[in-house]
Here is the input.
Amino acid sequence: MLRAAVALADADGLEASSMRRLAQELGVVPMALYKHVANRNELLDGMVDIVFGEIESPPLADDWRSAMRRRAISAREALKRHSWAIGLMETRTPGPANLRHRNAVMGCLREAGFSFQTAIHAYSVQDAYIYGFAQQERTRYLAEIALKLPESGYDNAVEFAWGLDLILDGLDRCLRTARP
Amino acid sequence: MLRAAVALADADGLEASSMRRLAQELGVVPMALYKHVANRNELLDGMVDIVFGEIESPPLADDWRSAMRRRAISAREALKRHSWAIGLMETRTPGPANLRHRNAVMGCLREAGFSFQTAIHAYSVQDAYIYGFAQQERTRYLAEIALKLPESGYDNAVEFAWGLDLILDGLDRCLRTARP
DNA sequence: GACTATAGGTGTACGCCGTACACTTGTCAA
DNA sequence: TTGACAAGTGTACGGCGTACACCTATAGTC
Here is the structure.
């Protein structure tokens, strides 16, 4: 059922995946859904957690920088596949996949030598960038900025990596110099 | 009318500022609103542009780094005042204040010596961070991360500035070394 | 002063939405 | 055979955006 909801939202947008529409898609009456989910909010929670499950979690033992890089890129890709989730990832009450992911990231950063406080900062700045970028990407096509860029080889993945590396460089420097 | 809509959304959230509720607030019948606005989307566009108007635009002649810093901080504050706008700033079709702001930022960056391409990158990474951070901030209170931090002097403004300066440092370095 | 165009407000109605509540049905354990 | 229980059904309510036809007061022209 969550799978169906995600597929529907992928195909026709979030507002199309209404309880009624989803029920119809499943060949069932709307109220039947409420036997599996308390309400629409809980449905959204479940859908968002599916997306979280698609993001690659950083392994503990790995070199932190490339682990973080892979995680960020996989997050962007997941959000590109499910762009309806972009506004929701940080708003919904976190599900199991979300918590597992958070633990993995924090673990990886602590392991790498970041202090608890700095790891929080590092996590925060990365996620802010990832989610903010995904949000931008959804709309960039109509901004006049984009109009002159495609022919000059503009690529969202490259743009994303540019900012990501800038941030990771900063974090790396901050780790080496033990900046607070 | 836009003013009233913004006030209503500030007070009771975006979903509370429905056409019907807004009309009621203005002592008028719902359909009366449609004499001033084509539909709800256009209303949202107007509301978002009001928020854009509250963000400090960087002056052309100023030192770019502090100008960008002030702009970012004022943007975060505007989004804190109008947190309903967070998901919308980049999704709506841009209004006059939005365009004016964009021009000011690009002008300031070009003036500072960034190439066109790099200015795009710089703009993109900053905005992604600003909007992404604002989005996080809306929810951070329920994340378990926050639970242990308030007593240890945690402050969202400080957190924001930490990441912002990390990014600005990166941009500054990139400007000095003429990195592509 | 009479006439009319127009901006703004009104009332009704339609089809969506989420969901409360009471009901049926199919399955399986005791 | 019985009874509990998970899953599906049907009806109904209040809220939403908004299409469409109507009214009314003001302002400009002759």
Notes: Chain A has a mean pLDDT of 90. Residues 18-20, 30-31, 34, 39-40 of chain A lie near DNA strand C (CB under 10 Å from a C1').
